[in-house]
Amino acid sequence: MAASGPKYGHHDLQFYWTRHPSMVFGIFMIAITTYGSKAVAVPEYLKLRFDNKTHAFNAISFARMTVFSSGISLHRPGGLLET
User: Fold this and answer.
1) Backbone dihedral region of 32: left (phi > 0), alpha (psi from -120 to 50 degrees) or beta?
2) CA gap 76, 69 in Å, rounded
3) Residue 24 has pLDDT above 60, yes or no
4) Using an 8 Å Cβ cutoff, are 30 and 42 in contact?
5) Quick one: pLDDT at residue 5?
6) Distance between CA atoms of 12 and 48, rounded to whole angstroms?
7) In this predicted structure, what is the pLDDT of residue 81?
């Protein structure tokens, strides 16, 4: 990322300096929200805050994402090793 400075200038620097404080703020907000509800994880918080349908939707979408990303992560190196 240091090489991006001469190419893009101040815009690149501004992007990275504003992203990190917002990430830290988001982590603290998640911690405060889940602590107030006595939930240990975000899926548990969704179940407490909404209902079982939201919890099931989160579980199914997370499982689909994991399967698809694992398939892509295994398929590409296999193609490289084949050649």
Assistant:
1) alpha
2) 11
3) yes
4) yes
5) 56
6) 40
7) 84
Most confident of 15-19, 56-60, 68-72: 56-60
Q: For residue 9, give the 3-state DSSP assignment.
A: coil
Whether 35 has a pLDDT exceeding 60, the answer reads yes
All residues at 6 or more sequence positions from 55 whose CB lies less than 8 Å from its CB, including other chains: 43, 46, 47
Please answer whether residues 16 and 1 qualify as being in contact, where contact means their C-beta atoms are separated by less than 8 angstroms. Answer: yes
- Give me the torsion for CA of 20, 43, 56, 75, rounded to 10°: 50
Residue for token pair 């991006």: 4
Share of residues in the chain with pLDDT > 90 (%): 7
CA atoms of 45 and 35, how far apart (whole Å): 10
Token pair in block for residue 61: 């979408």
Centroid of chain to Cα 32: 18
